[in-house]
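Anyone? Bumping this.
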Amino acid sequence: MAPLVNQQDLEFLLNDVFSAEALTKFPRYADYDQEAFTSVLDTARRIAETHFLPHNAKADAHEPQFDGAKVTTIPEVKTAWQHYADSGLLSARHGYDEGGMQLPALISMACNAYFMAANPATAAYPFLTSAAANVIHAFGSEAQKQRFLEPMFSGRFAGTMALTEPDVGSSLGDLTTKAVAHGDGSYRLKGQKMYISGGDQDITENIVHLVLARIEGAPTGVKGISMFIVPKLLVDEQGNCTSENDVKLAGLLHKMGYRGTTSTVLSFGEQDACVGYLVGEAGKGLSYMFKMMNEARVGVGLGAAMIGYRGYLESLAYAKDRPQGRSIANRDPASKPVAIIQHADVKRMLLQQKAYVEGSLALCLLAARLVDEHEAGDNADSGILLDLLTPVVKSYPSFYGPRANDLAIQVLGGAGYIREYPVEQCFRDNRLNPIHEGTHGIQGLDLLGRKLWQHEGKGLKLLLERIQITLHAAAKAPELQEVVALYQSALKPFMTTTVELGQALLGNKAEGTLANASVYLDIMGKYVVGWLWIEMVEKALLNAEHLSQEFVQGKLQAARYFMRWELPEAELHLKRLQAADDTFMATEPEWL
Amino acid sequence: MAPLVNQQDLEFLLNDVFSAEALTKFPRYADYDQEAFTSVLDTARRIAETHFLPHNAKADAHEPQFDGAKVTTIPEVKTAWQHYADSGLLSARHGYDEGGMQLPALISMACNAYFMAANPATAAYPFLTSAAANVIHAFGSEAQKQRFLEPMFSGRFAGTMALTEPDVGSSLGDLTTKAVAHGDGSYRLKGQKMYISGGDQDITENIVHLVLARIEGAPTGVKGISMFIVPKLLVDEQGNCTSENDVKLAGLLHKMGYRGTTSTVLSFGEQDACVGYLVGEAGKGLSYMFKMMNEARVGVGLGAAMIGYRGYLESLAYAKDRPQGRSIANRDPASKPVAIIQHADVKRMLLQQKAYVEGSLALCLLAARLVDEHEAGDNADSGILLDLLTPVVKSYPSFYGPRANDLAIQVLGGAGYIREYPVEQCFRDNRLNPIHEGTHGIQGLDLLGRKLWQHEGKGLKLLLERIQITLHAAAKAPELQEVVALYQSALKPFMTTTVELGQALLGNKAEGTLANASVYLDIMGKYVVGWLWIEMVEKALLNAEHLSQEFVQGKLQAARYFMRWELPEAELHLKRLQAADDTFMATEPEWL
């Protein structure tokens, strides 16, 4: 069994690339030091290895069952939940005054990386709970916090987000779940929600659903959407669960991957008795949900990165261990076969995986670093940059993580596609990530249609500044000349084309420009991750004395691969966008 | 439920592109006419729709079980087998004198296309049986034919190919299964084989394994390999099954897809009593197996193409039916949502699928057409071209078919990754195809290291001649100017680089050149399929009067997509090969 993550890589990213220790200069994190961070990470890794990893395949093979009355999950999931909850990680990022660990986002993200690599399906329960709790924390009333937040932080209650409806999908403005004021401050909800992860389970005493619904008489579209707390069991003021709320599990959905996480269809108010509590102001539901959603999107990116990472390490271990074939030059059939990692094509598939997954992990940790700078460091610019990058952090790992898993299978050959080896499950698990929490198409529209131009394009300016700093530093290293030159020459068309696309969006070419939005999303991902690869090598060379030589060379080779093989694809795409390629727009549905 | 294949497309390919009727000029096919072909195709489609499609998902959900003594498959598989056998398709290609249908390969391939789209896992049993029977037909003794061939053609016995061993994988020269002469003309075999598809089942009375083994004292390497017929049950001279042979099922492997096909580990000779019969001459086993293997490789290509095709049609039907969202320009939330096929990004994902799967089907039918020209038409050139193209026919659909299935899932969004919809299974089924019967890596080495240079490079010359004929004809159509110009300008670097690679292989750069063989394989696939796209549009324009206008426009738009988006990727790869990119070769295993 390969390790969950390359420990040297994770430590390098935290310490040498994202300067974890520097975070302790922020007053909020002043109590921490490097040792304390390490101790938290060790705890997370130990729980992931001991209580999440061992049942990863079992939870996949024995997915949750629904007998019409009750959902049953394998008992290991509850045990894992309990250990996670006991560690305090459910409220890791919250303040000491709230019983939290006041942990930086960067360290919290690194902890989550272990769980995502070990068992993404079981990890989904605590991660969704943390995200839902954060919304109540940010927008709920004091009474709501008292009643729901403490039991969520302690692990008694789990949380979900209930947005999607069967006929509506991602077009949230069309959702029809209704809420009627009951006169006592509460509401009665009626409607159906679908694809609700963790929407029912037998792990926790209660489940807190955050439901988007439309208050009677609210306007159509997104402005009429409000958010409600809808507990599975009603809760009295002392926090005790009293009786069942009118929330019914209509059925489970059977997924390709993440099988251990229930995916549910929920009926609210079949008996007209579904009690819900309005969160914050009416009509602001979607903006509240986006706090959770943005966090969830980064979480999806991390999941995709780590499932990809696990597949990489498993296929790497296999390739080093498996003898088969001989070198091209060796024609002696009596000679001993070599390990398949000696074959150039296997090296290709491993190097490509490395470039994708280590780049993706770096991207997710960058997002966490920006959260810290923004929140604890009170740096507005970091918040703007994070906003710009969120669709990329969601999408790049979701696109290239599965590609990595595909290559991992290919490295193993026949062993790759049988369930007797772990990479098969990685491939299935990761296939959900390009879809849930917003498809590439949606992320592309968000990026090209909105995020790039917010704050007068400041996000992009900030990104380019950071890139220039990296290029400037990297230019000093002779080993990096080729890498820097390739990136630098590719950067110009990226900038000019982006500006041109912005102008086209203002004119009457908006529709044609946005038609290629998901292509632009892919381009942006390659430039951002390409930058991070240069940043990584530059820091690896700088810190070479405490890193292994192989590690430094590996980073350098992956960066070379990225600039020679990945970036040119982005340049090719840019040419198409610059030429306003209309192949897809001009395709009539009847032609298909 | 979408159709298995676009009927207009299949008929167009058979009639307008590959001139099925012209085959009736060959004496062997003189009894056929267009109507007779249609009648055979209708029968195949009806059996596929009635007896294969309905249990496709069920056989996936209820995979074969092994209780330690016996394998159980769901009963529908046996029924499907029986209907297939009764139709005569098991010996479709064989002569009337042998009870066959004397059907052209082109029509046989088109029949198979229905089965592969309907249920690739169940279709594997008859397809493997036909392939094994063909080997016995070609190389077996008269006595062997009498004893084994008739029951295989009639459906009493199934067939398998047993090559791979646990410690050997694709490196067949290292296989260790032993055969000892028994004195009575038969042999006793001993060894273990793995990943044997259909290696055990409860569908047929008996199973005929074609086993590669090494006769005691044979040289090491591939020259010491012989082929043996090893029946599961021993068969007397009257063709009756008498007693069990010493072939034991050690276990089933649990695959990601094709779950309905058993994948087995077989132990031969645990009791030292495994009877086998030498096929043909000793030491020629591998060359015999390659007859079957080449056929199986084209079959894998077809399977990949048709699983991709089915996913395309399913996602197309969903996209036309599913309302969600509005056009970019429409900001009125009260307006009705449009079908998602109206969104440019969905059109992109559908057009891309169309380009991959219709191109892949055309490629497989081309291979069949070459078989007919070669065998019935006695045209040696066609055989040489088929030989060159076989790795491409195996690999292009295996690479791009799964890509199409990935896009099909993406079109469906959340519905795409749940087993309640069919595209999820397509994606899993298709993931086997880039591996079994030789990975891309192996196909790449076969193409660049061998096939290109056989017969003094005649295969490539023949290919280029055909391409030039197409380009010449297409240049007359004004609609095709852009498409032809793009292809033409891309063709030059393909030719020059290929020649350069050939020279490099002769010198001391062989290892470095072959290091990028799988990249070259991808390039070649794009050029060949790109050519077929031009051929298709040219023929569609020519036959526009009996085709729907939408069909012709669709072909044209897919060809435009191919030249604008796919071919440039191949040109980019060519530049890397021309520059002798050594990124992968130069990567040290320790860096990974």
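Late reply, but here is one note on the structure posted above: The mean pLDDT of chain A is 96.
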